[in-house]
Amino acid sequence: MIRVLVADDQAAVRAGLVLILRSAPDIEVVGEAADGLEAVALARRLRPHVVLMDVRMPRLDGISATRELAGVDADVLVLTTFDVDEYVFGALRAGAAGFLLKDIDADRLVEAVRTVAAGEGVLAPAVTRRLISAFAGRPRPVGAAPPPGLADLTPREREVFGCLGEGLSNGQIAARLHMAETTTKTHVSRILAKLGLRSRVQAAILAQETAESGLPAGGPDAGAAG
């Protein structure tokens, strides 16, 4: 059973989200929060698998709440009204597993929660590449060293890392690299651990930044099959 905490300051919106999620047989809504502070407190106490987090909330906004949950084993799925929202960038940097627009239909919302609970990131399709490109477009300092842990990636992990940078799902990566999806998931988990990242979305951003800056992916055999 997927345990979900819903955080939104609008009671009507929150009630609608809860109603949708409770219609799924494999999802249990374990709590509701009306602001960021309450979301953090409930997440620490209830230990949900997924926190559905609004961005603009009183007392503590969704981004700050996401940062506060860095030590909690819960994936944050951000909900926003606008597809161009400066807060979304901060949320992804803070470790959110992804974000969705509030106009998403019920079935896709349920599927998104399942996807995040399974360890994959979710981004609103209309803005996926725009988000990644926006992060990648921020130049790294001249002479910047590769991020810590990048040199520890195996050749196969570097290939998977590059695919993450393209925004590919585990299934798409598996198909491209001709391996089982479960193997792909294992590689992604190891990449996140080695790079000290919380989500595959952060890995995608780092992969794009690394590629755009011309930094090596770890060694002379980068890109080789492993």
UniProtKB/TrEMBL annotation:
Keywords: DNA-binding, Phosphoprotein, Transcription, Transcription regulation. InterPro entries: CheY-like_superfamily (IPR011006), NreC/VraR/RcsB-like_REC (IPR058245), Sig_transdc_resp-reg_C-effctor (IPR016032), Sig_transdc_resp-reg_receiver (IPR001789), Tscrpt_reg_LuxR_C (IPR000792), WalR-like (IPR039420). Pfam families: GerE, Response_reg. Gene3D superfamilies: 3.40.50.2300. GO terms for biological process: phosphorelay signal transduction system; regulation of DNA-templated transcription. Residues 3-117 form the Response regulatory domain. SUPFAM superfamilies: C-terminal effector domain of the bipartite response regulators (SSF46894), CheY-like (SSF52172). Residues 146-211 form the HTH luxR-type domain. The modification 4-aspartylphosphate is found at D54. One of its GO terms (molecular function) is DNA binding. It comes from the Bacteria. This is DNA-binding response regulator, NarL/FixJ family, contains REC and HTH domains. It comes from Thermomonospora echinospora. The lineage of its organism: Bacteria, Bacillati, Actinomycetota, Actinomycetes, Streptosporangiales.
